[in-house]
Amino acid sequence: MSAEKLLSLLHNIRQTGRGRWIAPCPAHDDRRPSLAIRELDDGRVLIHDFAGCSTRDVLAAVGLTLEDLFPERQGGYTGAKELRPWAAIDVLRCVAFEALLVSISANNIAKGGTVSEFDRKRLFVAASRLQAAVEVANGDT
Ligand SMILES: [Zn+2]
What we know:
Elements: H1 3-8, E1 14-17, E2 20-23, E3 35-39, E4 45-49, H2 55-61, H3 88-110, H4 117-137
Antiparallel strand pairs: 1-2, 2-3, 3-4
Bound molecules: zinc ion.
Zinc ion binds next to loops.
């Protein structure tokens, strides 16, 4: 499969570089694009949801499977693990947005406001996204 097929199943895609895109994740209610897509020169397609959905869940949400991520031609790739496949700028975009959310909440609390249950849950999501960003930048995924 080329990235084209996956991209045709997603909405609000933004290209962030050659063979790189971000889009809202189809596997969860994603108002802010958290899904990074990358097409490697050998035809493999890598995806990563910074919000934490598994690749399998993301693909299932658009009717694809893991096998769909590999190129149809045989022997075109070595299976070598790609080190740091995600562009630093894409990771930083995610981190910057989460940091903004946290600072808004901190400001509300500083003014004597309370944190709603919804906001509290969202802050946990922010923390897990920031942790995921560290793992991605570290090449752990
Ligand atoms: Zn997701």
